[in-house]
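Regression test attached.
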Amino acid sequence: MTVKVEVIEGGIPHTKILIAGLICTIVCLYLSYLNVVTNTEMFSFFGGLAAVAALIWGSHTIKVLCSYGIGTGVPSAGMIAFGSGVIAMLLATKFGVAAPIVALVLAAVIGLILGYLANEVLNMKIPAMIQALTELAVVGALTLMGLAVLITGSFTFAGLTSGSVTLLSSISMPSYQVSFIGGGLTAVAFLLGAIAIQHPFNACLGPGWKQDRMLMLTAECGFLSMIVAAIMSFALVDAISAIISLLIALIGWVYTYCEYIKMSKRDAYAWLDSKPIPDVEGH
Amino acid sequence: MTAVAAKPAAGSAMNPTAMVVGVVLLIILLVIAAVVSPGLGLMALIGVIIGGVLIGFGVHFVPVGGAPAAMGQAPGIATGVAMLAAGAGLAGLFGGAWAASQGFAIAIITGGIGGGMMMAITCMMVNFVYVFGMGIPAASGKVAKDPITGDTQPEYKSQGTEGHGLPFVSFVGGVTGGILGGAGGTLIYLELLNLYRATLPTLMNASAAQVLPIAVSVAGTFAIGMFLVNAVLTAYNITGTIEGPHDPKFKRWPRAIVASAVASALCGLVAILIVITI
């Protein structure tokens, strides 16, 4: 028997966030396909927006899952999300233009099986477990794909594995090392996403938890990760596209940061009757 | 209800049906691997499963204290499994990857030593902080006598706590867990690296030297991903905290073996499918 620690008081229901997050992410990922249609790299920033949308959805899923004291700490949920997501995302990139959809389906299957293992084989018996791990795997895969698009302008395996080096400022040579996967940028994107997904609930949990404040913090963390990813994208896309991504990330970050501070101030003097720490044996 | 009643419910009971389903799932995944890539792929998958099981089993040895340990109210290292596993496992993985060119056995041993050393240093510094910083002795709350040294524990245990610090058996457990985790992570990495080095040149139509960065990076990313999946599943098994091999929760390891094997087989199969031409 597990008892839920907190219930969601008011706010937007989780299903709504799930659907909105999923649609926004997929639409943004496909909008980045304008890169191929118009033969530029100007639309790479849509990848970053997809990542932010997926993170907002994911952090609310973590809230749903971690409300049932799972005992392992909030960061572990972020780690399993991206651990299973990165595996699905790398295989999905092989499917060309269908990659976002394949990533969604594949990650859902992996997450479903991991959820079953956690809930039944490991006997966790947490009602939200299977759905939450499924969602988290999808969020992990789509966030990584979004960051990959932001950095390279493409979500196909060929686009992520090949780049070019310019020798003597004129001769351009193809190179697999100067690429998202070959250069090891996957690992950086992995942690940029994992930190952004697990931090908001970890920071906002408690009796004063407010949904809008947590989601604003998630957006802020997402844009912060997007700034770093946009800076890395200077190596792999042309300078103008990278500057566009960086500007959008900066504007988004400044806006969400100011909003988050406002909300923190709004909530700071509120008093909620929390019980004193009960005398309880550890678990 | 309040948070008092919200302790994780995962008891030590096993769910036989789920265990059977897990084993069947494992066999199905192995058969799929045998069909799509007999030989190289299947061998790699078996290696990945063994590596994953080593990680899952190894995490049970690590004294994870969590938040209560940070307040000196429970024994163990004061952080969560995800952080400890990432630290020890990745240290081992880096060590093993560095030695990958020296041969299979040397790389695995190096990986194990890397993980074990990382945990040994962590455990020692944790005890330094506990003893000299917080002024508390090391005492286990789960056993009356240290199973290795035979030192009695209850006299040193403060009232109202479950013990504190890292008793000798927890230290040994931490190092053992680090060795198993580091070796397991390295095994996954090596198996995938060998597979990718053999198949990527034809798949990408390039020379072996050109695709090496891709092979190393993809194998490394998959190894990190699987490491975290296995570590977090094991964390769910021990519901977050454990004292070490003497803790009653340690007896839950068979469940984690099944879960880790299935999870590794699933992730490993996806990792193998990436080099299958569609």
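Expected vs. actual: identical. Chain A touches chain B through 58 residues (CB under 8 Å).
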